[in-house]
Amino acid sequence: MNVPSFPFLGFAVLGAILYNLLPAGILRRGLLLLINLIFLSTFVHGWQQALPYAGFLLTGFLGTRLLMAQGPRWRLPVLIAVILFAFFWLKRYTFIPAAINLPFLYTTVGLSYVFFRVLHLIIDAGQGQIKERISPLDYLNYTLNFTALVSGPIQFYQDYREQERNGEKVDLFAAGWAAERIIVGMFKVAIVSTLLMQGQKAAIADLAVASTFPMRVLYCALIGAIYPLFLYANFSGYTDFVIGCARLFRIRLPENFHHPFIAENFIAFWSRWHITLSNWLKVYVYTPFLMTAMRRIPSPAIEPYLAVAAYFVTFFLVGAWHGQTSMFLFFGVLQGGGVAMNKLYQVAMTKRLSRKGYKQLSAEPWYRVFCRALTFTWFAFTLLWFWSTWGQLGQFIQQAGWPAVACGWVLVLLVAMPALSLLRAVQGPIEARKVDPAAVPASRYWRTALSTAMLIILIGTTVLLNGPAPDVVYKTF
Amino acid sequence: MQDIYDKLTEILQDVFDDDEIVASPELAAADVDGWDSLAHVRFILAIERGFGVKFSAAEASAFANVGELANGIAAKRSA
Questions:
Q1: What is the CATH number of the domain that holds B36?
Q2: Is the pLDDT of residue A135 over 60?
Q3: B interface test, pick of A120, A156, A270, A290 with most B CB neighbours within 10 Å
Q4: ipTM for the complex?
């Protein structure tokens, strides 16, 4: 079952009605487990295909329970290693010898996200952060939560459990809020991201036949700049949709995006893009890495450089997690390198200008416009290793020539300056909550009209095209 | 509890190099200039040394404000 799609929406709404009719407690939680398992079963063809997945979940559960009991400290690193190995093995990472791969097809849908949840439980249980015993029912409902199974967002167990116990009732207002998120999400995925993807494909085709230098520059710029917009519409649309669906089950999933393209540096960008992934890695990689390093090397002069190293490792993992090929490893190097360079630059500028001087520079309008555009351009550049292949990159360079490629990126930077300033002018007041709730764009009448228009376009397009539901890029991770 | 807040004020002023900061339950990272992820770890390690307690990375990341941090310190001291 595709997410987002009308069949999934029907399934979720029907499930939510039954869920809300039942009294809180074992019956409701039992129904949720049934819904989660039915959804998972739509990806499984034959019981054998589900066995590795079940084994991974069982290992995580037994590990969590074992760590919650008193015992020696070595159990935590051993269990972390077991979970890491099981994940890499099941996902068939290239550094795992092919000889030990399972010789049959099996489902791995959402396994990357289940992995983050299981590892979080293992670490927190080992560090005494989970106070109450986790039942098999709660464990399965948390790890297999059908609204967030395919591509997240990654919710921490404590937050999930609190929501499940004391989640807000679904009244008319909540249902309206959920419907709006669902429609906006589906519209972003089915219409906006589809159009953007078609635009990028057209630019790629046009580059192959472009005869003049300015046209080659233009197509290079379009190929590079459209993809981040497509990915944002696609992934944030999916997130809007599942947040809306989860709200019908009284669960508020964490947000994954927060106006990422108005970020003024690459470190800030990653606190606005795929927020739950970067937050997870901040808690379980960046902070422990930095705390351990600073405890071992207690030198104030070295500390900023330890942070640079911690940033590199953390965001290299963010990139490398996306896939098993050398393209994704390089994507990880560019993410880690980007945030590490960003931190080094901050350290150097603070030394050179003093903290106050650097803060003053960072507040200059021209500087903010430039940094915002540079952040977008760098992210768009790194995404080349996310969506293409080495062969395809070589082909683009051959078709366009190095000068046109370089000028294309300069063009992206130049256009991003006014375009993102305009975006900042619109989104800034919304972010700062300075928009009057009574103003027309924020009023519920306007929002209802807009959502209705989106729904009509969505249904019209779906019926007219009669094609399969559009895919979500992160489904494959 | 007041002794915890007094000591936290001292540590905050030292870590952020600002004599104006006063620890209060609502004080959060967004209210203090320069409180980024590196400064946060620096602050947590200074607390560990100052109070003779130890935090896991998950605990260190979970505090939303100084009030929660003070409660965490009090709980660790009484354990």
A1: 1.10.1200.10
A2: yes
A3: A290
A4: 0.90
